Amino acid sequence: MKRQTVPMKRLLPALALLALLALTGCVRTVGSIVTAPVRVAGWGVDKATTSQSEADRNYGRKMRKEEEKRGREERKRQKEAEKQRRDSEH
């Protein structure tokens, strides 16, 4: 009986394709590991710095709080003045 062998030229592309499919996950993992320090550094810089839009938002919030405080103080002064005026009439 003669044994049939598959020629190496036909087998090589199939093995290369299998190896490529098997290593796809490894390449992604290596890519993630390599880019991780850059992403972490970028995240740190982003957290350590304030963008212009964040600065504007924070300034606006601060100004609104100050206006609210001035409004409360003004209403309190008006109530006290009204109370003193009523007390002086009696």
Strand content range: under 5%
H/E element sequence: HH
Helix content: over 70%
Structural class: mainly alpha
- Poorly predicted residue ranges: none
Query: Number of helical runs?
Result: 2
| Global mean pLDDT | 82
How does the major sheet shape up?
none
State the distance separating the first and last CA atoms.
Answer: 130 Å
- Form type: rod-shaped
Beta-strand segment tally: 0
| CA-based gyration radius | 37 Å
In words, what does this structure look like?
The protein has helices at 8-48, 52-89. With 90 residues, it is mainly alpha-helical.
Features:
single chain; 90 residues; mainly alpha; 2 helices
Fold blueprint:
Elements: H1 8-48, H2 52-89
